[in-house]
Specification:
Layout: E1 4-11, H1 16-27, E2 30-36, E3 42-44, E4 53-58, E5 61-66, E6 80-86, H2 89-100, E7 104-111, E8 117-122, E9 128-133
């Protein structure tokens, strides 16, 4: 059985690079900023790039975020989710389905350009989740 990790997932609405670089200065650790081109290819983000995925790992703490999608701006209260990820596909899939019961699966677990899978849901308590199956 693989470990799972829970962390906040923040939709920074276009300010992900600024926010994550600030948290990196404050917390230290390792910061990853990635962008995606129109063909869905992921690459390291440069200045001015829209952030498709950001992750800061600092001494056991993790913050994950993005600039969000311009066609789907987050409403107040919907810009924060709990991110759950792990490498055990069967276990994570089971967790995703259980969390979605009585709630709403916004996007099923599907293959992503970075190689893993991701899905989004709103649980029965109104909490947003981003669930990812990482490559082992």
């Amino acid at each position: 059985m693989s470990n799972i990790l829970l962390s906040p997932y923040v939709n920074f609405q276009g300010r992900a690079s600024e926010a994550m670089e600030f948290y990196h200065r404050v917390l230290g650790g390792n910061l990853v900023l990635q962008t995606m081109n129109e063909q869905g290819e992921v690459r390291p983000a440069g200045p001015g790039d829209r952030i498709a995925y950001a992750r800061l790992d600092a001494e056991g703490a993790r913050i994950v975020g993005s600039d969000g999608h311009p066609k789907y701006p987050a409403k107040v209260g919907e810009n924060l989710a709990i991110a759950l990820n792990g490498t055990d596909r069967e276990r994570i899939t089971k967790i995703f389905k259980a969390l979605a019961e009585g709630g709403q699966a916004k996007a099923q677990l599907t293959k992503q350009p970075w190689g893993g899978e991701a899905g989004y849901l709103l649980d029965r308590f109104g909490i947003n989740w981003v669930v990812s199956i990482d490559m082992a």
